[in-house]
């Protein structure tokens, strides 16, 4: 465990090692992690790649991530997109970006054995907010430093990675109002995936029009949710 003395809105963060050997950040006051303590990389691949990204074959994609955080989900999406040569427009929203010191304490590059992507991953974190940056020829990144509740997209994305902190600590981010915003942001037939599986979350999704599936969860979690916007 590595205490860096960094803060998220007044809350102290520290680096911890998760069950698969990969790192994540933990907010001590909340006893909440940015990724699963059972395995950060395992969770990210299971929830967002296997049950989200992979649904779209080799089609070009516009992706919205709610909770850019450590950049892990953006990194693995970048790596998977390189394999399929898909063009990806990636928008990551994060009100409290991690620091330079925190970024350099993460071990995703070594754990994923993707040293060739190290410079691009650094660029993801160093890129200024509110600007579209070409991370590679096929991966365009826009970071937005704002509150999730202030987003106002319409029919803009194929896929949403909903990776906000859990409803236990931030219940206001798992409401009908938030999911209505996500519903509007998705194109017809678009998909939202999240690690969450609470009944209240599923009902909030259904109330705004999503068709919701319970799916097997990543290691350490029994279920997760996938929500689809009906084709119109």
Characterization of the model:
This protein is α/β, with parallel strands linked by helices. The chain has one domain: Vaccinia Virus protein VP39 (Rossmann fold, 3-Layer(aba) Sandwich), CATH 3.40.50.150. 26% of the residues lie in helices and 31% in strands. It has seven helices and twelve strands. It has helices spanning 40-50, 72-84, 100-103, 108-112, 118-126, 176-185, 199-207, and strands at 2-8, 11-17, 23-27, 32-33, 61-66, 88-93, 132-136, 139-144, 157-162, 186-194, 211-216, 223-228. The strands form two sheets. The protein has an eight-stranded mixed sheet. A hairpin with a 2-residue loop joins strand 7 (132-136) and strand 8. The longest helix is centred in the middle third of the chain and has 13 residues, at 72-84. It is globular, with a radius of gyration of 16 Å.
Write the layout of secondary structure elements.
Blueprint: E1 2-8, E2 11-17, E3 23-27, E4 32-33, H1 40-50, E5 61-66, H2 72-84, E6 88-93, H3 100-103, H4 108-112, H5 118-126, E7 132-136, E8 139-144, E9 157-162, H6 176-185, E10 186-194, H7 199-207, E11 211-216, E12 223-228
Parallel strand pairs: 5-6, 5-9, 6-8, 9-10
Antiparallel strand pairs: 1-2, 2-3, 3-4, 7-8, 10-12, 11-12
Helix pairs in contact: 1-2
């Amino acid at each position: 465990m590595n205490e860096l003395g960094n803060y998220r809105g007044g809350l102290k963060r520290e680096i911890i090692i998760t069950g698969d050997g990969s790192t994540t950040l933990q907010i001590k006051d909340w006893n909440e992690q940015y990724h699963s303590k059972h395995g950060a990389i395992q969770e990210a691949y299971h929830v967002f790649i296997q049950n989200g990204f992979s649904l779209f074959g080799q089609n070009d994609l516009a992706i919205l991530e709610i909770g850019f955080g450590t950049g892990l989900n953006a990194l693995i999406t970048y790596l998977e997109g390189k394999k399929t040569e898909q063009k990806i427009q990636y928008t990551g929203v994060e009100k409290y970006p991690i620091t330079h010191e925190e970024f350099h304490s993460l071990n995703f590059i070594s754990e994923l054995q993707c040293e060739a992507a190290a410079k691009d991953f650094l660029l993801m974190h160093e890129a200024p907010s509110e600007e579209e940056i070409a991370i590679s020829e096929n991966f365009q990144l826009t970071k937005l430093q704002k509150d999730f509740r202030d987003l106002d997209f319409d029919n803009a994305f194929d896929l949403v990675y909903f990776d906000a902190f859990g409803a236990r600590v931030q219940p206001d981010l798992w409401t009908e109002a938030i999911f209505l915003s996500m519903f509007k942001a998705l194109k017809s037939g678009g998909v939202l995936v999240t690690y969450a599986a609470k009944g209240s979350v599923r009902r909030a999704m259904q109330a705004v029009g999503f068709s919701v599936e319970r799916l097997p969860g990543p290691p350490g979690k029994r279920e997760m949710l996938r929500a689809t916007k009906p084709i119109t």
